């Protein structure tokens, strides 16, 4: 049981590290600082690798506990295990605490990552809008001005302004 508590504690710490990185990412995404974003993403990948290794270890420990208790590992939940520890209140309390901490950390990571995903999507839509604006400026109609040799001397309509001016 101590192994499970230890692994869950380590896993919750790593999720808290991941949460910190995700929160650092939010202002970087808003500012559009791609180099910093890439650096934070690399750090996140390292933390996710550690979380995956801890998750494998947690599954191994949980399988061992299920076998000792003669329970089906597929149906046994951590909350069930906490309930079964009524006769050992100290371990029950430790396991419940670490379970709650891990659950809260995972919830917060999901929430912040969801917000970051929305910000990134908005940034991509803005880039697409800018690209479409630039493309449409290149295909703007010309004025029908001709010189004596019947050559078109017209300019593209709207090209003189140099793009969108938010100060108008």
UniProtKB/TrEMBL annotation:
<protein>
    <submittedName>
        <fullName>Flagellar protein FlgN</fullName>
    </submittedName>
</protein>
<dbReference type="GO" id="GO:0044780">
    <property type="term" value="P:bacterial-type flagellum assembly"/>
</dbReference>
<dbReference type="InterPro" id="IPR007809">
    <property type="entry name" value="FlgN-like"/>
</dbReference>
<keyword id="KW-0966">Cell projection</keyword>
<dbReference type="Pfam" id="PF05130">
    <property type="entry name" value="FlgN"/>
</dbReference>
<keyword id="KW-0282">Flagellum</keyword>
<dbReference type="InterPro" id="IPR036679">
    <property type="entry name" value="FlgN-like_sf"/>
</dbReference>
<keyword id="KW-1005">Bacterial flagellum biogenesis</keyword>
<keyword id="KW-0969">Cilium</keyword>
């Amino acid at each position: 049981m101590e192994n499970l508590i230890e692994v869950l504690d380590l896993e919750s710490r790593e999720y808290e590290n991941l949460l910190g990185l995700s929160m650092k990412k939010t202002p970087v995404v808003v500012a559009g600082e791609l180099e910093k974003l890439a650096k934070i993403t690399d750090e996140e990948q390292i933390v996710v690798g550690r979380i995956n290794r801890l998750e494998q270890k947690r599954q191994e420990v949980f399988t061992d506990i299920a076998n000792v208790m003669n329970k089906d590992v597929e149906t046994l939940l951590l909350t069930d295990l906490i309930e079964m520890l009524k006769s050992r209140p100290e371990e029950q309390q430790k396991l419940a605490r670490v379970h709650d901490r891990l659950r809260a950390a995972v919830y917060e990571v999901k929430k912040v990552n969801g917000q970051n995903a929305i910000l990134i999507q908005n940034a991509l839509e803005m880039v697409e809008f800018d690209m479409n604006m630039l493309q449409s400026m290149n295909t703007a109609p010309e004025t029908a001005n001709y010189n004596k040799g019947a050559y078109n001397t017209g300019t593209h309509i709207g090209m003189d302004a140099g793009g969108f001016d938010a100060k108008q």
